[in-house]
Amino acid sequence: MNEKTFDTIDSRADELAALTADLIRFPTINPPGEAYTPCAEYIGERLRKRGFTVEYVRGVGTPGDNDRYPRTNVIARFDGRTPGKTVHFNSHIDVVEAGEGWTLDPFGGVIKDGRVYGRGACDMKGGLAASIIAAEAYIDMNPDFAGAIEISGSVDEESGGFGGVAYLAEKGYFSPPRVHHVIIPEPLNKDRICLGHRGVWWAEIETKGQIAHGSMPFLGDSAVRHMGAVLGAFEDELFPALDRKQTRMPVVPEGARRSTMNINSIHGGQTDDYFPGLPSPNVPDSCKIVIDRRFLLEESLEEVKTEVTSILDRLKWERPRFDYRMRDLMIVHPGMTEEDAPVPRAIASGIRRVFGRDPQYVISPGTYDQKHIARIGKLHDCVAYGPGILDLAHRPDEWVGIDDMVESAKVMAYGLDILLHGEPRA
Length: 426
Hints:
Protein name: Succinyl-diaminopimelate desuccinylase
Helix content: 25-40%
Number of domains: 2
CATH topology of the largest domain: Aminopeptidase
CATH architecture of the largest domain: 3-Layer(aba) Sandwich
Shape: elongated
Number of helices: 10
Strand order of the largest sheet: 1-2-6-3-7-15
Strand content: 15-25%
Number of strands: 16
GO molecular function, one term: metal ion binding
CATH class of the largest domain: Alpha Beta
Keywords: Cobalt, Hydrolase, Metal-binding, Zinc
Largest sheet: 6 strands, mixed
Organism: Mesorhizobium australicum
Oligomer: single chain
């Protein structure tokens, strides 16, 4: 039965490429959230014609949602002949901005030399298209299967997933008894299984000062200088300490197997309140940075925060008039599905069957929508697996290989069969 499914997927390679190109032509740029509804409706209408029950769910009240840019998600479900487990393929339809440096139309969906080019080709409309073809081929070749297959196109993953998977999980779309197994076709390379991700703590730190005339700075207190002391302490103490921390998590690339922190932004003073290029004649009374701290399974959130606050509290003793405020922006705990869980076992069997070798198990350096499925939906049998080379994501001339999509679709269909029937079939 799997051989017939594989042959069917092979015969639909051109359709798979065309579907990917069509999806790319919807410029679903986030922010602000363009073309979400027409893209979701395109997916829904295709699957409805193939017998799926289709539902559109708007993430009402989530960040960015409004009548101009509604957070429209699509969920399609195909019930088998008899009851059983439900396998859900979830892909995000939003993409980042195109940026500069393209040699091809980023939203042209160009098919050339065995590749499909465009923003989102790799991350992750190629994976979405592969999951659709895999599910359709499986249903055509296995009309009497037990259980159910779901496919969703969700929004806002690139900005945290709050209007997409997080909202859907809160509504019960990613929890038993509705769903039992989830595969997210993110581009982690076709022979890799991504078991989870590092944790993330985003926070804003503000140092306080006192405004005064810039010609008499001794009458004020510069918040920027205070922030300079913070950054100096981070450089001398925190960054070296983070670099010494290692994890058992198989994070890729190698450098991400350590704790890391990025200074996302810095702003101090009133310059931006004036016309560009004109300075403010004031001593700045506020300076803010945003930190992006990625932490490991071996670290607690309390430990991660204490490493920062201990430096800030010490500076309060060392520097006259030093004061700060800190607020959390986002917290995601690290997560890792074990290799022997049903979904990674099934996908691993598919990789061995299609490629003739064992999979590589990896952890993502950043987070993706698995975090919401585990945290809100309480469903932990979830991995990321899909076509595409991770290093191409968000770059100019992004592409996905057609053969890679075909082979990944075969792996998905093989894994689907195991999850629905419990064992590989000839």
